[in-house]
Each structure stands twice: as C-alpha cells, then as structure tokens.
Amino acid sequence: MANDADQNVTVENPTESESAVEVKEETAEMIDEPIVSKLIEEPASDTVEAKAKKVARQRVKVSKGEIKRQAILLILSVWFVNYGLIFYYLPLGGWIMAFQNFKLKKTFFDSLFSARFVGLKKFHFMFEFDVLKDAIHETGNIFQALKVWIDNVMFIRTLRNTLGMGILNLVTTFVMAILFAILLNEVKNKLGKKLVQTISYLPHFLSWIIVTAIIRDTLSSTGIINDLLRLFHVIDAEETYNFFMKPLWFWPIVAFANVWKETGWNAIIYLAAITAIDPCLYEAADIDGAGRIAKMRFITLPGIAPTIIILLVMNIGNVLNAGFEIQYLLGNGIIQKVSQTIDIYVLQWGISKSDFSLGTAAGMFKSAVSILLIVICNQIVKKTGHGSLF
Amino acid sequence: MKMKKFIALGMAGMLSAAALVGCDKGNPGTVDPVDPVDPVDPGKQVVAPEDIIDFTMFATMEGTELNPNNEIQEIIAQKTGVRVKETWLTNQDAGEAIGALMASGDLPDFIDAGNKFNDMYAAGLLVAWDPYLEQYPNLKEMYTDAVWEQFRMADGKIYWANVFNNTYGASKATGHNDEAFWIQVRVLEEAGYPDIKTLDEYFDLIEDYYAKHPTFTNPSGEEVPIIPYTVQSADWRYFGLENPPQFLDGYPNDGSVIVERGTGKVVDYNTTPTAKAYFQKLNEEYNKKIIDSEFATQDWDTYIQKLSKGQVLGICDQNWDFNYDVQPALKDAGLDALGCEYVPLGLTMPGVTENRWHTYGDTLNNSSGCAVTINCSDPDRAFKFLSDIMEQEIHDLRFWGVEGVDYLVDEDGMYYRTQEMRDKQNNQAYRASHMCPYSYMPQWLGTSRDGKNAMQPAEQGSEFTASFSEPLRACFEAYNANGYPDFIGSVQEDNEPWFPMWSYSNTMSQTTYPEDDPDGNFKAGDDWPAAIAWIKMGDCKHEWLPKVVTAKDFDAEWEKYMKAYEACKPEDFLADMQNEVNKRIEAAK
C-alpha cells in the first residue's frame, strides 16, 4: 500500500505541480478510505480547479514594483508577442484580396494596391446562390434543392466532401486511438506491449505519398485485395474490382488510411493519461469484485475523460482540414465529385487558374467555419462541465 | 597550441566556404565579362571555368534531369560560358507549378510556362526579346517577321518564342509527331499487313491478336500478360480519349473544336454523332475486356511503364507524349525485335475519305515557348546563350553529340552512327550522363547549315532506316512506306489560316481576361465566361468520359453525360472560339 502511494506521487500530472503537495496529502488520506465510489465522485482535479480559480481571482495589480520584478519575463515575452503578430496576425491582412480582383504584379504591394475592389463577387462565384434559389423554386423542397446545389456547384461539393471526410476521419481515428490505447493498456506482457506500441506508431512517420502508393498497390488489379476477392470467388477470375472508380469507396479508403497511419501515434497521449490513473483505484475495484471490462468502463475511461474532451475540442477545429495530399494523390477524374476538398479547390482555382482572390475567399470561408465549429463545441463542453479549452 | 589549431581550422573552413560561395551562381557584376565569342567559329573560344555562369530553367513538362557534370553540358559551358540546370514537372500540373512559382517569386532564369505565359506576362515577370532579336541574328532567324508578329503581345513586345516544329532549309521529316491510333508492328505482321481504315477494323485486328496471344514471353524469359488497348484519361494528357472525334470526321487537330473548311464555322466535336459512335465503340470494347480495366485511374508514369514493357497492343496518343520515352526503352529491353514498336494509323469513320491526322508543314503554337524571366541576373548573357546554342557546332553537340564518340562522318560529310553508338543512345543512364540536348530551348528541325545532314539525328535519312529493327523494316516494306506519315496517308494541303485553334483555347487557363479588350467590351480581370465554361467542360469530360466508356448501359449514361455537359455552358466557349476564328481569318487577309 505504501509503495503504491509513492508511485502515485511520481506520476502526478505536471500541470498540477503547484498543488502537488496538497494533492499528495489528499490522496494519502483517501487511501485509508475503503469506498471506491467516493473517490471517483471527487477526483483530485476538482480541488485543483477550484484552487486555480482562487488564484485567478487574486489578480496582481500592475505597479512599478511589479513590472520591475517581472522585467525579465516581460523582455522574454516581447519576442513571442511579436512573433505572433508578424507571423499570425499580419498575414491576415492578405484577406483583403478576397474582396478584390487581385492580379499578380512584380511586387506584392504593387499587386495589392493596383487591384480593384469587387465586393463579394468572389463569394458569389463560389456559392452560386442562384442555383439554389432556382432549385427551390423548381422543386419546392429544400432538401431536393440542396441536393441540386451540391450536384451543380463545385465549391459546395468540396465543402460537403471536406465536412464528410473530416467527420468520418475524426470519428474513426478518435475511436480507434482510444480503443487501441485501452486495449494495449490491458496487455500484461511488457515486451509485447512495447513492441506493439512502437510498430503501431511507425506509419505516422511515412509521408502521404508513400502511404498512397501502398494503398494504390494494395487495391490495384494485381494487388492483394483483388487477389483475395478472386480467391474467394467474390469476383470472377478474369475480373478486377477497381476501387478507385467507385465513388462510394473513396471516403472509407481515406478514413482507413488515416486510421492506419495515425492510430498508434494518437494512442500515445491516451496511454500517458492512463498511466496517470491512480493504481489503487484498480485494486479497490478488484476488491469490490469488478472484472476487466468493468474496470475499463468505470475507471480507465472516466480517468482519461478530460484528455478525451480536450483533444476532441481541438480536433473539431481541424475537421475542415480533412486533408489535401491523400485526396489529391488518390483522386482521379471519375470520382472527383467526392474526392475534392476545399484545399484542392484553393489549389485548382486559386493557384492553378491564377485567381488568387478566389483562393483567398475559399480559405477565408474555411477559417471562419473552423472557428465557428470550435466555439460551438467548446460551449457545449463547458455546459457538460468537463473543463473546456477556453 | 590547441587554440592555434582551432583558429587554423576555422580559417580553413571560412576559406572553403568562400570558395563555395564563389562557385555558386556567380555575381556577374564582379566577374570579368567574357570576350565575345566569334559568331563564325565559336569553337575556338574556351571559357575559363571560373567565368562560367550557372542559370536555371524550368519547363512545364515531365522530363529527366541531367546528371551533374554531364559531359556535353560541360563542353557547351566551356564554349558559351553558360551552364543551365534544367528542372521539370513532377506529379503536378503546369498551372499549379507555375502558379506556385509566381506566388513565391522564386523564378528560374529561363522558363517554359506552357499555357500560363499570359499570367506571367500580365504580372510583368518576363524580359522582352525585342532588343536582343536585333542583336543576335541567330534568334531573329528563327521566324519570319510575319510569324514574329504573332508572338507580339498587346504592349507591342515579344516575350517568348516557340522552339518546336521549326524547319531550317528543306524539311527532312520522316516522323509523325502528332496524334494517331498506334498499333504494334507484330499485330499487323500476324494479320498479313492489312489496310486498316476504320475503328471497327482496328479493334477487330486487336481482338483477333489478343484471342490468339493473351500473353507473350519477353527477352528475359518472363511471361507478360497482354493489355489489348489502353488510353490515358488523367489530367491534361487525356486527349487520346477525348479528341479523336475530330479526326474521325476528317478534320485536323484544332484540338478544342472542329472548324469547317471553307466556311470557318465552329462545331463542337464533343456532341457530334461521330463522338457518340466513337464512345459507344469504346464502351463495347471495354465490356469485351479489350480496353485496360485501369485506364481511368492510371497516371502517366504507369501508362509509360505499361507501354515500355511492350504489353500494350494499341493506343491513341500524340507521338511526343509517349514515343520519346517508349521507343528507346523498347529497344533497350530488346522488345523491338519482337515487334513491339508502334506505327500510326489514320482512322476515320466509314464514308469519310480524307483524313488529317498528320499535319504537313510547321505548326505554330504562339501561346508558349522559351522565355527569360526578370529574375535572371544577366538577361543579355541569357539571350546570347540562346543564340549561341543555335550555332551549328553547338546544335550538333546538343542533338548529335560528340564527333567520334556519338557519331562519325563519312567521306561525303554525312553523319552516321554505328550500331554500338545507337545502342548507347537508347540507354537512359548514358543519355543522362553524356547527352545534353537542352530540349526546351530554341532548336531547328530540317537540314543542317552544311546543306546535307539533318539538324536532328531522328530526321537523318540513313539513320532513320538503319536504326530499324527487323519487324519494323518488314512493316515499312510491306506498306511501301518511306516515313511514318505514309502509314497515315493524310491529305497534303496548306493549313487553314486559323490552324491550330488549340493555341487559343490553351490560354484559357484562368477565369478572368488577361488583358483589356481593344474594342472596350471588357477589362483585364473581368470574368471570362468562355474560359470558365472551358474549365468546367474539361472537369466534366474528365469525370464523364471514363464513366461513359465503362458504363453497363451506354445510352443512359450518355444521356446523363450530355445533361452534365450542357450545364457547363459550352455555348459561351464556342462563341468565343468563333470570334477568334473570324479574327484569324481577318488577320490573314
């Protein structure tokens, strides 16, 4: 028992270090208490949070003495503030291009100041609301009209594809990483566990061009999948099932590639969170007669819940970054309607067709939606009381 | 003691760094100007290594980079004082590559921007040729004044010159560099060299051969499966799938539309009855498993690999798009002896008597070429280099190689190669380390300035037949052909004044007008409906043509395709093309 308590202290989350001493005392007290359920109802983090709030309330007043005392910190922070301004906020000035008829000239400022303002024309070009209006008029049904809109307007289609693939990727990689981490945690053999963990995150270091080549090869007419299909007589011996000509397959292939590449890597953070769970909780559960599944369900999962929530909020902001390389490299003419994402749209119409204004407009729209998504998600999480990003 | 060593080390390091900097690029301001090369005999001039300047070039084409210290590149550098590092497209399309270069401002010294030249011109990123044209007669000599006029932009200056399809003196052409339905020699041989005139005959021939030979054994003893027919449908190289309807109706390669002879009326070849019949035929063949099941998803590299293995019996493609890579590869692998080389066929619809697959005479593409960018530190030297490499001696070095090593001269002054030399030329590793054609810079076809030899070895009469494999020779004899165009039998006539229309539609790679309308109908930067329609039509065809070809129910799929196609507003595009035809007719008067 005493050994366990020591171990517990060493794996304390570093962010809680300021109150580590108190936590240590607390947990030491708690160990004496036999009721497990009470422990779970009052996790140590609650008290830490309350503490943090108290600290925040006691704001330090800005005075000469205080400035002097923090002089070094202030000087150091100047660099980072400037870094942020120059590399994150200054480039946003380029968004003005979205409302201009921007043409490249010899220098950037030449082009910026010689361009004519065209208002929201680029956005009109992207959305083609007329098509939607006409469709509503014709069909009288908003859903059918939306379908017509998606079918006929390229940007709307890329938006649908981006959201679709983004959500599919998010759900699959997210669930797989958690599942993988929890299952790996149950492996008793240390060598096996380390081996699996190492191998599983290696694909993360492959570039997409390699991954897509592997996928193309696997799914090609002479690849293993088609060989298997032939072997089990799913298709005739002469036939080939061409996965890249079937629009329905594209999203699952992309999701699978993401899962294959990122599961091991994403699981690392959950594995770390799991090691931070107090082992005596498991022992107590053992005493209460909990089985493996019950321990996963009632101890491991709640234990990493805060980590899951934070990562979820962060990843939802990334949903619209559903990818560029994989869709670009795996896509082709036939399935372009389901394969093109907003990033490909920006490349095709912005860079390739030299319509930088259109590219900027599309990029801007993407950022706006991302911010919206992340704020909504954060509010929801805040309401559920699991701690939020901001 | 230790300290001294450190200092010495540091000094040595700095010195070598300085030396490296000295090698890099070179600052033309501090380097002594090279003595002007005597234009009559540039051979005498040898430039000291430290005076050699390094330029860069980017061309919007897939290509093979030369090895560093390429032998002929060094010889040319010593004679002209300029070494050019060429880079090529890799797995992108031209628009993306040039767009990214422009946006980053990191331009090479020389550029072939393909169909993005209008953008570069509008952005003011190119150096005008005009002053240098007067200064360097070799450049001026490339075209007549009337043709130079066609390169002139709205501001009255010339910014690029096309380097291809330009004949010096008498034409020596024996090749067919254009599009055709190509077929392997062995297929013709087996059928007893029949006359093939229509699509039906062509596919019957392929089917018969494939039925008898589903596989073949290559020279290394492997059993290779045969793919009866394949075609590219990826990116801009999908013309072999997309534009045969114009040829099948007997029209030349205007590329984006048919223009009726005599009347000058623009017709859309995508919607003609011939187009439907052609795609229906492809659909039929696909369902018979004659067409490659992966044609719709393969990229260019995969396509070239298949051809180079000799496993594809027939294709529809431009000669320049595959044969420069495929023929040497076939020869290198010994597949030429098995009859895997291709000859072109001039197919038409039944009832169409004339075909125009082969274009006699030079085709001028005034929308692209070779240009010098404003990033070039010394434009004068760049243009001088372009002029120097057109000197006969350098030109021979570029295309023939080194005398005694790559070719020999007989007592009549005719250049020729031994079999060993030809074999070396077919070896890609040798070409990369030895040959330096600067293939996207100004060059000549036709007859050399000595009045006897061909400017480029491929056009040398003796070389042309001497390099033949046995099956190819037999095939030429059977059809009594002297050159590839004889297989096609196109009509020989003067090109129409508007030909080729693709030089105009190729400029529609942007959504807005590149410059103001002289009549004041639109301003630069306004939406260009024709170009928007053209881009959408391209996307639509990329999606639907493979769908139509692979469909189970052709008619239903064709209906859907036509509906999607109409939604792209092709009429906007056609109206603009008609306008351009009228302008060109007017200009030719």
The CATH C-level name of the domain at 29-166 and 364-406 and 416-443 in chain B is Alpha Beta
Question: In CATH terms, what is the architecture of the domain at 29-166 and 364-406 and 416-443 in chain B?
Answer: 3-Layer(aba) Sandwich
First and last CA, distance of chain B: 87 Å
Rounded to an integer in angstroms, the radius of gyration calculated over CA atoms of chain B is 26 Å
Sum up the structure in keywords.
heterodimer; A: 390 residues; MetI-like fold; 3 domains; two-stranded antiparallel sheet; 21 helices; disordered N terminus; B: 589 residues; alpha/beta; D-Maltodextrin-Binding Protein, domain 2; 4-stranded mixed beta sheet
Q: How does this structure look, described?
A:
The complex is a heterodimer of chains A (390) and B (589). Chain A contains 21 helices and two strands. Chain A is mainly α and 390 residues long. Chain A has three domains: 1-26 and 37-59, no CATH class; 61-119, no CATH class; 153-384, MetI-like fold (Orthogonal Bundle), CATH 1.10.3720.10. Chain A has a two-stranded antiparallel ribbon. In chain A, helix 9 (129-139) runs antiparallel to helix 10, helix 15 crosses helix 17 and helix 17 (292-316) packs antiparallel against helix 21 (356-384). Chain A is globular and about 75 Å long. The two termini of chain A are 38 Å apart. The model of chain A is unreliable at 1-45 (pLDDT under 50). Chain B has a domain at 29-166 and 364-406 and 416-443: 3-Layer(aba) Sandwich (D-Maltodextrin-Binding Protein, domain 2), CATH 3.40.190. Chain B has a four-stranded mixed beta sheet, sandwiched between helices. In chain B, strands 8-11-5-12 form a four-stranded mixed beta sheet, with helices on both faces. The N and C termini of chain B lie far apart (87 Å). By secondary structure, chain B is α/β, with parallel strands linked by helices. The longest helix of chain B is centred in the first third of the chain and has 22 residues, at 2-23. Chain B is built from 25 helices and 16 strands. In chain B, 41% of the residues lie in helices and 11% in strands. The interface between A and B is large, with 33 and 38 residues.
